[in-house]
Design a protein that fits this description.
It is built from eleven helices and six strands. Helix 1 packs antiparallel against helix 7 and helix 3 crosses helix 6.
C-alpha cells in the first residue's frame, strides 16, 4: 500500500515529521504546567488555517481536466517497455504458429540443373548384322545382310528440370499435429503472459499515481500546519508585547513553525519526485502541471469474502496461471513430437522430369523429353533415434520445471490474496478510526485555541493540540489513499 511505512520511504519521512512535532511539543507539558493568565485578544489566525481537512482537500481533489489513475494506466499501457517486449513475444509466437502450419502442406520442390560433361571417346555396340529394306520380323531367305555398327553419341551439355512432391504420411500422425499444437499453445501462453504483464504495469502505475496524490495531500496538510503555526507565533508575540506571556512561549511557537515549514518542504519535495516519476512512466515531456482528477471520497468497493473463496477465485482467473497452463500443454506436445523422431518415417513421393537429353530415352538424343515416377519411401536412422530420445528427455525436464513453477506460483498467489485482503480490511478500519480521531482532534484544537485566547490554556497545550491535529490529518489521508490502493491490489490479486 502506498503511504505505509514499509513501502514508501518518503512517506515515512513525512509521517515521522508529524511524529516529531508531537514528540517535540508534548515533552514540556510534564515539566511546566499551564499557567493561568488573564484573557487576551490575540490576533486571530486566517480562516483557511482552521478549515476542516475535507474543506481543504476538496479544493485540490476531483479537478475537471485533471489527471486520473485510469489515464496513467492507459498511457503506461502504450509506452511501457515491458509491454512492448510482451507484444514482440506474441508476434514471435504467432510466426511460429504460421511456420508449423506450413508443415501440413505436401512439400513441393523444383530443381533446375545444367551439367557439362567431360568429353570421352564415342562408344559403340556391334557391329550388328542387319537386313536393309526388310520389314521388322523374320528375314526372308536371300535377303542381303550387312554389318552395321551401333554408335552412342556423347552429349556433353546436360539440361535437367524436375518437380518433386513429397507427402510426409507418418509425420501427419506423430509430428506435425503435435508441433502445430505446441506452437498454438505457446502463442496462447504469450498472450496470457502479456495480459498478466499489463495488469502488473497497471497496478504499478496506479500505485505511483496514488503516491503522487498522497504527497500532494500531505503537502496541503503541511501548508495548513504552517498557517496555523504562523497564527500561533502572532498570538504569542501579542501576549509577549502585552506582558502577559513569557518569551518562552514565543520561542516554542517559532520552533513549531520551523518544524512545520520543514515538513512542508519535505512534502513539496516528495510531490515533485513522484510527479517526475509519473512523467517518466508515461513518457510525458510536457511542462503542464498536473491536477488531481480522482475523488477519494468515491472509493471503489471490493467485497471481502472468506480467504478460501478469494483464493479459489484467484486461482481460476489469474492470467499468470493460465500462461503456465498453456506452456505446460505446449511442452507436452513438444515432448510427443520429439519422441516421434525415433520412429521410421513413411513418405509418398512423385517426380516429374523434363530433360535434354532424358536418360530414360536410349540412345540419348539432344532433345527435350519428359518422364515421371512415383512411390513410397520408408526411412530410419539410428542417429535420429538417439537425437530424438535426448530431445524427449530435455522436453520432459522442461515440463517438470514448468510444473514446479506453477505450483510455486499458485502458493504465491494464495499468499498474495490473503495479504491483500487483510491489508484492505485494515485500511478500511484505519479510515474509519482515523476519521473519528480527526474529528476529536479538530474539536480539541478548536477548544484549546479558544481557551488560549481566553488565557486559560498555555502555548504548550495549544502546540500539543495542533500537533495531534496534524498527526490525525496525516493518518486520515494515508488511510484514504490506502483504501483506494488496497482495493486495486486485491483486484489484481484476484485476477480482475
Amino acid at each position: 500500500m502506498i503511504g505505509t511505512d514499509r513501502r514508501r520511504p518518503g512517506v515515512r519521512k513525512l509521517r515521522r515529521s508529524g511524529a516529531l512535532l508531537i514528540t517535540a511539543f508534548s515533552l514540556p507539558v510534564a515539566a511546566q504546567p499551564a499557567p493561568q493568565r488573564p484573557a487576551v485578544d490575540p490576533k486571530p489566525a486566517a480562516d483557511a488555517s482552521n478549515a476542516t481537512l475535507d474543506e481543504r482537500l476538496n479544493k485540490i481533489l476531483g479537478q475537471p481536466g485533471g489527471l486520473s489513475s485510469d489515464q496513467v494506466v492507459e498511457r503506461a499501457d502504450l509506452v511501457h517497455p515491458e509491454l512492448e517486449k510482451k507484444r514482440a513475444q506474441i508476434a514471435r509466437a504467432a510466426a511460429e504458429v504460421d511456420r508449423s502450419l506450413v508443415a501440413y502442406f505436401p512439400r513441393l520442390t523444383f530443381i533446375a540443373r545444367y551439367t557439362r560433361l567431360s568429353p570421352i571417346d564415342q562408344q559403340s555396340l556391334g557391329p550388328v548384322v542387319a537386313a536393309p529394306g526388310v520389314p521388322q520380323g523374320p528375314i526372308p531367305p536371300g535377303s542381303p545382310l550387312v554389318n552395321v555398327p551401333i554408335q552412342f553419341p556423347s552429349i556433353l551439355n546436360q539440361y535437367w528440370l524436375q518437380a518433386n512432391l513429397t507427402i510426409p504420411i507418418s509425420d501427419y500422425l506423430f509430428r506435425i499435429r503435435q508441433t502445430h499444437g505446441a506452437a498454438t499453445r505457446s502463442e496462447e501462453a504469450a498472450e496470457a503472459s502479456a495480459i498478466g504483464a499489463r495488469r502488473s504495469v497497471a497496478l504499478q502505475a496506479r500505485k505511483l499515481y496514488f503516491s503522487w496524490v498522497l504527497a500532494r495531500l500531505q503537502r496541503e496538510v503541511a501548508a495548513q500546519a504552517v498557517e496555523q503555526a504562523k497564527a500561533h507565533v502572532e498570538a504569542a508575540k501579542s501576549l509577549v508585547e502585552a506582558g502577559k506571556s513569557s518569551k518562552t512561549d514565543l520561542l516554542r511557537a517559532e520552533a513549531q513553525l520551523g518544524n512545520a515549514e520543514l515538513l512542508l518542504e519535505r512534502s513539496r519535495g516528495m510531490a515533485e519526485v513522484t510527479e517526475k516519476q509519473l512523467r517518466i512512466l508515461t513518457k510525458d515531456t510536457r511542462d503542464q502541471p498536473y491536477a488531481i482528477a480522482e475523488d477519494l471520497s468515491a472509493a471503489r468497493t471490493q467485497s471481502l469474502d472468506q480467504d478460501s473463496s478469494l483464493e479459489t477465485r484467484a486461482l481460476r482467473t489469474r492470467p499468470e496461471l493460465k500462461a503456465l497452463d498453456r506452456r505446460l500443454g505446449s511442452l507436452d506436445m513438444q515432448r510427443s513430437a520429439a519422441r516421434a523422431g525415433s520412429y521410421p518415417r513413411l513418405e509418398a513421393f512423385g517426380n516429374l522430369y523434363y530433360a535434354n537429353p532424358n536418360s530414360r530415352y536410349v540412345p540419348q538424343v539432344e532433345r527435350w523429353n519428359s518422364s515421371w515416377d512415383t512411390g513410397l519411401q520408408l526411412t530410419w536412422s539410428p542417429n535420429d533415434f538417439g537425437a530424438s530420445s535426448a530431445a524427449a528427455r530435455a522436453s520432459q525436464a522442461e515440463y517438470d520445471e514448468a510444473q514446479a513453477e506453477r505450483s510455486a506460483l499458485a502458493d504465491s498467489i494464495r499468499t498474495e490474496v490473503q495479504a491483500a485482503a487483510q491489508k484492505l480490511r485494515e485500511a478500511r478500519l484505519a479510515e474509519q478510526t482515523s476519521a473519528r480521531v480527526l474529528s476529536s482532534a479538530e474539536e480539541a484544537y478548536r477548544s484549546t485555541r479558544e481557551l488560549y485566547s481566553l488565557g486559560r490554556a498555555s502555548m504548550v497545550e495549544l502546540i500539543d493540540a495542533q500537533s495531534e491535529l496534524l498527526g490525525a490529518r496525516l493518518e486520515l489521508i494515508n488511510a484514504r489513499v490506502g483504501v483506494r490502493v488496497g482495493t486495486y491490489e486485491l483486484e489484481h490479486a484476484l485476477g480482475r
